[in-house]
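Here's my example:
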Amino acid sequence: MIGLGSLQSFAIKPNRVYRFYPEKLGLIYRDLDVTTSDGLKIKTWFFPAQPALSEKELSDYWQNPIKKPYINIYAKNRPTIIIANGDAGNMSFQQLHHAQFFTSKGYNVVTFDWRGFGESSEWEMNNDYIVYSELLLDYDAVIKEVLKQNEEVDTTKIIVYGWSTGAYLSMAAASKYDNIKAFVSIGLITSFDEAIPEIIKAKNAKLENLIVPDDYPKELLPINLAPNYNKCTFLIVGEKDNRSPIWMSEKIYSLLPSKKELWIVEGAEHGGQEGPLRDFNLFHQRVLAFLEKNL
């Protein structure tokens, strides 16, 4: 059901088609109205904290998906996790299963699609690009809209959470907001200069097919942010990751001044079925323990 196999990438590969919608998992959710500073619509789902469903209820919704009326079950504002995708797929992949778990533990969850992905606004992309600087505009617009949800969101307890491309974009986006208290990263690079040789080796790629935009803000790369980064940070990396190897997470970890943890996942690769999320239960429990301890 989780279907992580297509999510192992390291160049932009937008997927416009959703595998399924949250009602297949019986999740309560609503759309947030998110518009970027350059006028694009970013498809965003807001999942309020909600009780877990029984196995029978899950089976019934999977077989007969019906969108539930939106209701905020908890009177008290909740901590909120914003999940950023990597560079492939869309938010109908593993994000929905993360939402399913964390909402059952009392967290709101927000998922969104980059421009050109899923049902966000069309935006032409060259698949040789590693990233586009404009994705930072998408992330910023999502954060600003989440901060407006002050009847449901505890705006002093926001967490950003991303993997691969979504990891360094999460670290960058969070750096601009005091409201964001924690950062969870899977497969974080240090810098493009150090990452590109690793990608070339791992994928047998050519340098000319790995384009970094000239306008990406260098000050927002993890290696430059780390020494003054004041978020509680959980770095997760696969033992066999050959795209963002262990030494990159260790290098960032050594520079971080705030509360931090590093988890090297035994036998795991960068992503996909053999990535750090291959044991979803263990992964979720480790992340939950980190958040409960640091929030």
